[in-house]
Design brief:
There is one protein chain. The protein has 18 helices and no strands. The chain has about 425 residues and is an all-alpha fold. Helix 7 packs antiparallel against helix 15.
Length: about 425
């Protein structure tokens, strides 16, 4: 199948599964598409067992493998999705809470990585450095999953901003930590660092700081150009060029493309919208990127459902995956609770912040893509299986219950 045929198939299936969910399941759209996709995948597997002569599972597996989920997300969709997500988070909302967001996106990610790494190494006998790589890819909350679910959860706006803002930044930091640890754990694998501690430190500084600087510079230059233009169609096109071109430039310069997309999106969504766009342009830009976000979300969750064909569900791997769910939740709790405890003497936190931000920290497609991108080895199938189980549990179970949890707590928890 050609690229156009695969893209067409994904769009058709996303629309069809979305319609099935809307008419029958009535779940939040992203979760519903994932559920229908999983049901379709499992049905194909069962049919293949009953009538093996059809060879349906092998055909679907071959098609799914050809899509290359890791490259499709990390090198294509991710830039647009992060830019769209950041576009709707205001700098002014983040400024009032930058300390807690910063601590959760840095200290929280590192703490979670260590907890998951130690625990998973103990559970499975996996080498510690390899287990840390698993901890790094599963620790960040996925802004794609978080924003896709929270949009329909009707959480308090301020709390939604906190979760979404922290998710956008810890995703970028987590990706850099992942690259650093891959460079150490797999020095001869496909890593971006030269291996060793010195290469890891250099990579972290180059990726994180370089990505942020590039995002701010490109966002600012784009804003200055947009101030000179009053043509909504052209300005929408310029923002699209910023998201696409900036992401690819960051990849070429070996700086963090996710952090670049977040910083550029924040600047355009706040400063650019206020001072560089007319009311009409602002309306079209917001509507365009909301539509892009929803379409790509649908396709991404569809692809997550079909990735079940690439996972080896052995008995030991499944047991390790379910144990890793509890481990990941405990690590997320620590990543939220420790920064809150550190800041508690200096500011007041309302009851419920920790449980909601813990349960609302969803994992998503980025974790699966990172697991798929690992160098081939003895431990990769186990990591992929555990990652997939955690992601499916997170999106379906946590995604469907975070709103009732907030409702039970009165929808009032807020960082004061």
């Amino acid at each position: 199948m050609s690229f156009l045929q695969i893209a067409s198939l994904l769009i058709v299936l996303a629309g069809a599964f979305g319609a099935v969910n809307y008419l029958f399941l009535k779940l939040p759209s992203a979760i519903g598409i994932l559920v229908v996709s999983l049901m379709a995948s499992i049905s194909v597997m069962i049919l293949d067992v009953l009538i093996p002569s059809l060879g349906m599972a092998d055909q679907v597996r071959e098609t799914v493998t050809r899509i290359d989920f890791s490259d499709a997300l990390l090198e294509g969709m991710l830039g647009l999705l992060l830019f769209a997500g950041a576009l709707h988070v205001k700098i002014s909302d983040l400024r009032a809470q930058w300390r807690v967001v910063f601590l959760m996106a840095t200290m929280g990610v590192v703490l979670s990585t260590v907890i998951v790494g130690v625990g998973f190494s103990w559970l499975t006998g996996m080498p510690f450095l390899v287990a840390l790589v698993f901890g790094a890819l599963i620790s960040p909350t996925d802004p794609v999953a978080v924003l896709g679910v929270l949009r329909e959860a009707n959480l308090q706006k301020s709390l939604e901003t906190k979760i979404a803002g922290e998710s956008l930044f810890n995703d970028g930091v987590g990706y850099v930590v992942f690259l650093v640890l891959v460079g150490i754990a797999f020095p001869h694998g496909d890593s971006h660092s030269g291996g060793g501690f010195d290469g890891a430190v250099k990579l972290f500084g180059q990726e994180a700081v370089g990505g942020a600087l590039l995002g701010v510079i490109l966002g600012w230059l784009t804003f200055r150009v947009m101030r000179l233009i009053d043509d909504y169609s052209l300005e929408v096109l310029i923002t699209l060029g910023l998201a696409f071109g900036g992401y690819e430039l960051a990849v070429a310069l070996h700086v963090s493309a996710p952090i670049m997309a977040v910083c550029a999106g924040l600047l355009i969504g706040d400063v650019g919208a206020k001072h560089g766009m007319s009311e009409e342009t602002r309306h079209y830009v917001e509507a365009f990127w909301k539509l892009i976000d929803e379409i790509l979300n649908a396709v991404l969750f569809l692809m997550i459902g079909f990735e079940v064909f690439t996972v080896a569900f052995t008995g030991d791997a499944v047991l390790a995956g379910f144990a890793a769910i509890a481990l990941a939740l405990f690590a997320r709790f620590a990543a939220v609770a420790v920064p809150v405890m550190i800041l508690k003497p200096f500011r007041r936190f309302s009851t419920g912040v920790i449980p909601i931000m813990t349960w609302g920290g969803l994992k998503g497609g980025i974790s699966v893509a990172l697991a798929l991108s690992l160098p081939e080895g003895d431990w990769k199938p186990l990591i992929l299986t555990a990652t997939y189980i955690i992601v499916v549990f997170s999106i379906i179970i946590q995604g469907l219950t975070v709103a009732p949890l907030a409702g039970r707590l009165g929808r009032e928890p807020e960082l004061m």
